[in-house]
Amino acid sequence: MSDTQTDAQSRIADIVGKNDVVLFMKGTALFPQCGFSSRAIAILDRLGAPYETVDVLQDPDIRQGIKEYSDWPTVPQLYVRGEFVGGSDIMMEMFESGELQQLLGNEA
Amino acid sequence: MAMAAAEIERLIIASIPDAEVTIRDLAGDGDHYAARVVSRSFEGMSRIKQHQAVYAALGGRMGGELHALQLETAVPQTETNRE
What we know:
The structure holds two protein chains of two kinds.
Chain A: H1 3-18, E1 21-25, H2 35-47, E2 52-55, H3 60-69, E3 77-80, E4 83-86, H4 88-97, H5 99-103
Parallel strand pairs in A: 1-2
Antiparallel strand pairs in A: 1-3, 3-4
Helix pairs in contact in A: 1-3, 2-4
Chain B: H1 5-15, E1 20-25, E2 32-38, H2 47-57, E3 68-74, H3 76-82
Parallel strand pairs in B: 2-3
Antiparallel strand pairs in B: 1-2
């Protein structure tokens, strides 16, 4: 790995470690730039737990690095208390089954 | 670049032979798909691992050539439970 790649991995680890609920997405919570990110935000807003977002479009190293970090090829990606939860499809399934609410229960 | 639904199905089955694959072209533009993949091989795997298995089958096309694939995975047992 190059220095910028290693740097991106440690920056991601830092963000994931410092924020209980963090969504890596395209765009911002107010202006999602992709339908999948928009869906992820809608789910989080519905659950009402506080969350942070990282706009991968603002940082090419993070945009590439986040795919390697969890061996997951797409954005959005949700992390709760340091653990990778999944992308928007898994978030939707977990939302519908009530699992996501349970997972975020401590935060909401 | 777009990808044909049949090609997506072929790649998934090449890697997960018992997979029952249902693909819907969401926007009719050959670029936004929803796939449902049901396989016995998913048994005991977390959702993340199941999705990763499908992404692996697509061999790096996901997020590139294939922009939008809404994915749902399940083991056949789940199907029975739902009915």
